[in-house]
Amino acid sequence: MLQLKNVSKTFNPGTINAKTALRGLNLTLNDGDFVTVIGGNGAGKSTMLNAIAGVFEVDSGSITIDGADITRRSEHKRAKYIGRVFQDPMMGTAPTMTIEENLALAARRGSRRTLAWGIKKSERAEFRERLESLGLGLEDRMTTRAGLLSGGQRQALTLLMASLVKPRLLLLDEHTAALDPATAERVLELSDQIVEEGRLTTLMVTHNMRDAIEHGNRLIMMNEGQIILDISGEEKRRLTVDTLLAKFSRAAGTELVTDRVLIGA
Amino acid sequence: MDFLQSLINSLPGVVGQGLIWGLMAMGVYITFRILDIADLTVDGTLGFGGAVCVLLTLNGVNVWLATLVAMLAGMLAGLVTGLFHTKCGIPAILAGILTQLALYSINLRVMGWGTTAGTQATLAISVDKYELIHSSRYVRDFSEHIMQNPIIIMLPITAIIVAVLWWYFKTEHGSALRATGANLQMARAQGINTSSATVVGLMISNGMVGLAGGLLAQYQGSSSVDMGRGAIVIGLAAVIIGEVLLRGHGKVLTGLIGCTVGAIVYYFVIQIVLRLGLGTNDLKLFTALIVALFLAIPYWKGKAAAARRRSVENKEDKTNAAA
Fold first, then answer.
1. Which of A24, B146, B191, B209 has an alpha carbon 20 to 30 Å from B48's alpha carbon atom?
2. A164, A103 in Cβ contact below 8 A?
3. Structural domain includes residue B314
4. B182 contacts chain A (CB < 8 A)
């Protein structure tokens, strides 16, 4: 349903800071795929997600969702198809607006925003129900401003917002990296729950190899702007950290040694 | 005793002026607080609204209609700044400065419309000859000209505008605009066209300022090319004073009411310092310093709080080390 064909992107071309982040990237996602994405620092993981979301235009190649070419479509127009959760917990919510206002904004993703009242009464009940499913007690704080929530609460809320209108594609960009281990664990559980309930096609970038192995049905590894490993099915289920590391060295021809790749004890 | 007496005598004028500037401050509030943009167009827009309103009234247009057109003129100015910013990639603050500068020439032309010179720096309009909405002359008049008393006129106008703006910012459209100012990245991810939201915000903001300009010109009986000089700072002062007094915690309704409260308090303080011997020419210096101080206070508070946290942590570390 998502197809990246030969996608390339160079930042600051023609300058001393030129950085090629994506080099002829190809990727096809099938409906219902939950793909975890790993790779070293600067491998192009986040760049790939941002290219799909339309944060910037790619230099060449094409991006299609459900057969629709969205390569040149602006970020807010693509939002119709895409739900996103970011690494920075501050990025996913409007801090000066209340929890229910944030949810109401998300409930209108992909539809025209009119001069109708911002939150319908019937929606409140639905929001409350959805918030209850997070198990964080946020259903009793619907008129609290999002800026007063903790990082974990905000990520959970952002997850809910990303899936409130069922997206064709869910992009999780290291969405647990800024959280403490226990909170990260809880947010990952919630992610699994939401992906499963909605049968959402998902791309999840992570630095944690263990998380990449334990979640999803497919794992891709990136290096220097390309996908160098694509593991799914039975092979993915049998994957361990050790075999993954060995596969990486063979594929990339180098040792995977970077402080940003956590092996996970 | 004389001091108090003259201060009390000045109160009706303070309230009248404050109510008009409250509308202007709402324009500043919309850009500065809701959109998170410092829009300097408003210095030109206030004079533009005034010039358009007076010119039209002098040419026989109904004064209410002329005031409405002043608001539309302000919205047009906001549109220009918005397009400079979103379509031409000019930083918002510079886009505002460009429109403001252009408006200086435009305002001279508007006020000089039909004269041989073609430009004019002031345009007077007398409440004796034209049925103005209100005039500073009647600010203490609660009998014969009560329907042209600025306080009597401005209170319902303010109430209606606060209600309409509050309603708008609670709609889907207005919520999208608030989200754009609160978190651009999130707004786009939720499918909001942040460029058009920004343009709409600048238009509403400058529309308020144009309206205030039209009302202010009638209040003082003239428009002038200089009437908007430093308006942004007075607007900011009103916004900030309102926030300090009402503690709205970002609530739009409180913020809007705070603009009016803040503007009235601002003019009251000005009356006090004038009576304490400050020259009228020094007012802008005084206003600038006050606004700088109030903008600095939250920053200093934040630094002090961080320093306190550090010293507490240091102490704990030392205690832990000792134990």
1. B146
2. yes
3. no
4. yes
pLDDT digits (tens, 9 = 90+) for B203-221: 999 999 999 999 999 999 9
CA B217 to centroid of chain Cα atoms: 15
**A180 domain-assigned:** yes
Angle between helices B2-29 and B231-246 (to 10 degrees): 100
DSSP one-letter code for B216? H
In a domain, A200, yes or no: yes
- Check the CA dihedral B48-B52-B54-B55 and report its sign: positive
The reply to whether A113 touches chain B by the CB within 8 Å rule is yes
Q: Is A120 on the interface with B (CB under 8 A)?
A: no
Name the residue of chain B whose CA is nearest to A146's CA: B182
* Nearest of A216, A263, A218 to residue A242 by alpha carbon: A263
Question: Are B171 and A76 a contacting pair at CB < 8 A?
Answer: no
pLDDT in tens, A193-203: 999 999 999 99
Evaluated on CA atoms B185, B190, B193, B194, the torsion sign reads negative
Q: Which of A168, A164, A83 is nearest to A129 (CA)?
A: A164
Domain count, chain A: 1
Q: Do B171 and A110 touch (CB under 8 A)?
A: no
Tokens of B71: 């608001």
On whether the pTM is more than 0.90, the answer is: yes
Q: Write the ipTM.
A: 0.91
User: Touching check for B174 and chain A: CB below 8 Å?
Assistant: yes
Contacts of B22 (CB under 8 A, 6+ apart): B158, B238, B259, B260, B261, B262, B263, B264
Q: Could you tell me the residue range of the domain that residue A65 belongs to?
A: 2-97+150-252
Going from the C-alpha of B163 to that of each of A257, B167, B217, the distances in angstroms are: 61, 6, 24
Which residue type occupies B18?
G
Domain tally, chain B = 1
Give SS3 for A3: strand
